[in-house]
Write a structure and sequence with these properties.
This protein is α/β, with parallel strands linked by helices. The chain has one domain: HUPs (Rossmann fold, 3-Layer(aba) Sandwich), CATH 3.40.50. The protein has five helices and six strands. Strands 1, 2, 3, 4, 5 and 6 form a six-stranded mixed beta sheet that branches. The longest helix has 17 residues. It is globular and about 50 Å long.
Length: about 140
């Protein structure tokens, strides 16, 4: 049975749609949610460039955790740091390290024609994960 859920957040409207889904799943299972945010950095000309601050990343995780806790869900959080473009792998690896049973994340909002394709991170997570992946639309 699914009891522990990873919830990926990035502050986008699409990711925010996954929060109520994670709440519902955790309530049904009597489980908990671990909120993940992947903080990317880039290497340019020998220097590391942070794409967001640690404070911003922690605020995203805290905001989601507050919503979960307000709904009566046990919640933990983790900010993961990785190289630009490696978000999906970092998320899958962290979910495995935390022994989650499923990953919940949002898909980007697309037009009807483009709607046949998931967001690139969601698509990669689905292919990389050995656990169920639940995508909120």
């Amino acid at each position: 049975m699914l009891k522990t859920f990873a919830l990926a957040v990035d502050g986008s409207e699409h990711a925010n749609r996954a929060i109520p889904l994670a709440i519902e799943l955790a309530k049904l299972a009597g489980g908990k949610v671990i909120v993940f945010h992947v903080r990317e950095h880039d290497l340019q000309r020998g220097q590391i460039w942070e794409l967001e601050t640690e404070k911003e990343a922690n605020a995203l995780v805290k905001k989601a955790m507050d919503k979960l806790k307000k709904a009566g869900i046990k919640a933990d959080g983790d900010v993961i740091r990785t190289a630009h473009g490696k978000v999906a792998q970092a998320l899958v690896d962290s979910a495995k390290d935390h022994k989650v049973d499923a990953i919940v994340l949002g898909s980007r909002g697309l037009s009807d024609l483009e709607g046949l394709v998931l967001g690139s991170v969601a698509h990669k997570v689905i292919h990389l994960s050995h656990k169920p992946v639940i995508v909120a639309r």
